[in-house]
Amino acid sequence: MISRVKVLFLFLSVCPTVFSQAISDEWHLIANSRENYYGVAMANGQIGIVTDDTPLKTKEIILNGVYDGSPENGISRIVRGIEFLNLRLKLDNQEIKSNNIDNWKQVIAMKDGTSTTSFSYKDLANINYTILANRAIPFSAMAIIEIMPLKDIEIVANNYMTVPDELKEAKSQFRVLKDNQYLMPVFGTVAKTLTGKYTVAASTTFLFDGESEALKQTKNEVGFTKKLMKGKKYRFAIAGGICTSKDVTDPLNESERQPIYALQEGIDKLLTRHKMAWAELWKTGDIQIEGDLDAQQRVRFALYNLYSFIRPETRQSIAPMGLSSQGYNGHIFWDTELWMYPTLLALQPDMAKSCLDYRSDRLQKAKQKAFIYGYKGAMYPWESDDTGEEATPTWALTGIYEQHITADVSIAFWNYYAYTQDKDWLKKEWAVLKETADFWVSRVLENPDGSYSILNVVGADEYAQHVDDNAFTNASAIESLKNTIKATTILKEPINPKWALIADKLLIHTKNGITQNYKGYEGQMIKQADVNLLAYPLNVITDKAQIERDLEYYAEKIDKKDGPAMASGVLSVLYARLGDREKAYSYFVKSYLPNSRPPFGVFSESANSNNPYFATGAGAMLQAVIYGFGGVELTDKGLKYNKGLLPQQWKSLKIIGLGLDNKTITIK
């Protein structure tokens, strides 16, 4: 067993040292050490509040869909918000700091979407500090503080706000609003993003159990003083919200309405609504593993993070790092459609649809990009922000040449129809499939023998640049074209005959019985799975012997030091579908364990990096469970439930909430 107190490091051949989180139970992750700390995003799809090991404060707040230019190169970057839940607490005129507390512990409650930090302060008190981004109220958050005095003490509690460097012209104010005899104290800060594109405003108030305390402003802090009696628990909360001019016309006043609303609701009602919203998500989409608590925690933590990073009906998508950081500038990549989307489609289709809405809203910008480079149809950007224009830094060739993203988007749209069989939706969104198919018609080159090639691209294997006939690029284009023909037939729209011609004659090269990564490939190290994606998720290669040969060959070519987590996830799916239980489980473990960081096991992109949370890797690991061990298969007629394959280490696998009828399957 893994100690509840100490961190155990496991040793695998794939990584010198990898972290294994402290065990508590299937819903809670517990940290007792602050060493090498990597926090967790308490997120609700709109705002992400990243935990810190320092008591009574947060690390940063990430605002979904809000972008402004970075000072380094002007490239758009997701915006950090005003940290509005921070607390300065004094006990008997002694301030609590990071280095003067004892018995620190932090618990992530995945079921409830909360983080609770507990500690003791000298011989004066034991303290709990719980933060949450309210799942039921998108722009709202709350910190709940519980103090158990060990003797009679006086506390001074002050809320302060931290404004990140990328915000400017920050102004704070405290005022007490009045409606008849009802007093509503509101503390707020408003600022501009770096270029002045957006206004950001955060506002808070204090909530109390029982009688309210009089609040006073001291410099840029607002708080109260209170005498507490030994052994009598005292609870209060900082509640409020953060709004921007991207979402509302008047962010300052709308942010002030968040604490005013909280005052009327109270701590328990706000907390109950938050927990109920999370309970509904788990009810409609969960994975239960019996017999392997560590795997259960990892899988559920991956689900928690994916669910945290998006909300249905917001027309937003998910960046590789979700709402946990500004990693990759918060841009949207193929990571969404190929790696995260399949899990959301299976368990939370309304969330998956939001990712598609994001792309549909930016179709005109994709058409503009095709026009800029002399092509027809729609050419989606490799990195996308709120504008839908290309947001890749200019030094990165991927922005121009990693063009499989256009097919990835199209395939995701078809897969949503396949899942739902919703013809009205398909008719509404058919233009995405048609315009992306038209792009490939204009992009391919006809060879003298009548075959077609796509020249000069960067494939999924980004180590290979300026290559011809990259396997994944060509195969995804083939799937995109074939899916467009299916959709067009269903809708009785005119079919471009070139769609079928190119889909049938677009080249995928082989050599010595191995599918070639690209034309002229000579066995070089690859960044990640490329050819293997043709078997899953594309289903372009279906011959079992060919799948096995490609697996054995390319599994040894993937960069073992710096390759991203996704490759192991897709290899696990394929080996599970081939019936190889041992290899499927081995690659499942490799898809997360070398990339786990203390103290909670947050994902890093590779075994050799420290940039969590990598939602892309979480998506790949979850696909290994659902589409590999679970035997789930997405066909043109909807989900199909095959036999599945249970790892020897597990007693059973239960997947809850599959399909339109919220089906539950159990693998034993």
Automatic annotation (TrEMBL):
Spans through the membrane: none
Signal sequence bounds: 1-22
Keyword terms: Hydrolase, Signal
GO MF term list: hydrolase activity, hydrolyzing O-glycosyl compounds
Any one Gene Ontology BP term: carbohydrate metabolic process
Domain Glycoside hydrolase family 65 central catalytic: residue ranges: 300-518
Name of the featured protein: Trehalose and maltose hydrolase (Possible phosphorylase)
Residue ranges the record marks as coiled coil: none
Entries under Pfam families matching the protein: Glyco_hydro_65m, Glyco_hydro_65N
Residues of the Glycoside hydrolase family 65 N-terminal domain: 41-245
Organism: Flavobacterium micromati
